[in-house]
Fold:
Amino acid sequence: MSEGRWKLTHQSIAFDENDNLIDGQHRLHAVVQSKTVVPMRVDVGADPSTFSVIDTGYGRVASQFMHVSNANIIMGAARIILFAESCRAKGGEASLMYRGNFDNDVIFEAVDQWPELKEYASIATRIYRACGSSSTNMLAVLAQASRGKAPEAIDSFAEKMITGEDMTKGDPVLLLRNRAIARMDRSLTYRDKTVLYGTTVKAWNAHAKGERLKFLRFTYDGKSTDDMLPVSSGRGSTGMKEKIPEVY
Structure:
């Protein structure tokens, strides 16, 4: 634009029937940055539901379409819940937590079905700030725990994660918190995201049941065969992997 090479094309700036900008934000940002005036087509009155499928092949993420506080972690947590549900539908068999497993419209529907995501988003954020535990992963577990058998245990679980107090050896929350502080849950690999979800659910389940743990781990590709399934994906993989645990 700043070099004068902008051409008018079929691509437009689009507003929905509520006057919200649903397409063209990057082009408009470029106009501001280049301090130029360029011609563009403008469409108005679009169906708001089309926003979730516009240019999704160009790296758009669902959080771009949601104008609420903590949109990033809410959408990410919804994706994790969908992942967990899909694993349970396959008998608990764990798979890799790929980012593109679910379309944006499916994620939006999950957010609507899980209002607890908005309710617990601030708590998940506080936990992340206190010890570095993934806020999206934590939010997904807390939301499911609120529908589980011990929702009254959420406050104590969150308090321990945030403060690091009132815990002794064998406390599952201490094991989970130490893992986060050691930066063990910040890898970006799809395999590690699956492992992180499994360990967080295990820690919550033990806390909710009042159980102590000697160690906290979730095996995706190891040697143990106790309550595990054969690895069905991964070239040359001959190990075993645990079933995705239910949130207690």
The helical segments are 25-34, 71-89, 104-113, 116-131, 135-145, 154-163, 172-181, 190-209. The two ends are 55 Å apart (CA to CA). The mean pLDDT is 83. The chain has eight helices and five strands.
